[in-house]
Design brief:
Elements (H helix, E strand, L loop, with lengths): L2 E5 L6 H9 L17 E7 L2 E7 L10 H12 L4 E9 L5 H10 L6 E6 L11 H12 L3 E4 L8 H11 L9
Parallel strand pairs: 1-3, 1-4, 4-5, 5-6
Antiparallel strand pairs: 2-3
Bound molecules: guanosine-5'-diphosphate.
């Protein structure tokens, strides 16, 4: 293994985070949800080592449409061999769907980091959110909870540190 998976609902900022982690534009970001329809891998190679980033398609709770079922399946299969999961939520728009995604992640045999994104955009009325997420973190036993901003790069260094710790000894994470 040696994969770090970035998981989350559409439009929470997964592609932006991936770009941030790799320090270059490798995937498409858009204001429109569901832009990332295919798995886009960012690969960093040095000597014989590779670290592969998987930007999973958005996990869709509403499975009525076939495209959503397919995207769900692709997202699940990409989680089979991961070293670490970064579960990205939009800190300005926590929804019940996010909590349902948590149940899917329960079966993943790897540390799950809860990355609360768009912290740069959180207004006073949302100040109740972070304590709520701390409660969820205990309930679902997240390895870490980190408020972050993919746009501004806030706390991305912490995520890089945890990724380095979780990857096998022969795989390195090159930010
Ligand atoms: P994805 O569908 O999960 O891959 O989400 P994207 O990375 O495409 O981002 C969706 C939208 O959220 C884009 O308009 C981004 O510019 C915006 N966005 C992503 N990260 C942040 C952040 O940290 N702060 C703010 N304010 N907006 C963000």
């Amino acid at each position: 293994c040696g994969f770090v998976a970035i998981v989350g609902r559409p439009n929470v900022g997964k592609s932006t985070l991936l770009n941030c982690l790799l320090g270059q534009k490798v995937s498409i970001t858009s204001k429109k949800p569901q832009t990332t329809r295919h798995r886009i891998l960012g690969i960093h190679t040095e000597d014989s080592y590779q670290t592969i980033f998987v930007d999973t398609p958005g996990l869709h709770i509403e499975e009525q449409r076939a495209i959503n079922r397919l995207m769900n399946r692709a997202a699940s299969s990409s989680l089979a061999d991961v070293s670490m999961v970064i579960f990205v939520v939009d800190g300005t728009r926590w929804t019940d769907d996010d909590e349902m995604v948590l149940n899917k992640l329960r079966h993943v045999n790897a540390p799950v980091i809860l990355a609360v994104n768009k912290i740069d955009n959180i207004s006073d009325r949302n100040e109740v959110l972070l304590p709520h997420l701390q409660v969820l973190a205990q309930k679902y036993a997240f390895a870490q909870v980190v408020p972050m901003s993919a746009k501004q790069g806030t706390n991305v260094d912490k995520i890089i540190g945890w990724a380095q710790q979780s990857l096998p000894d022969n795989v390195f994470f090159f930010p």
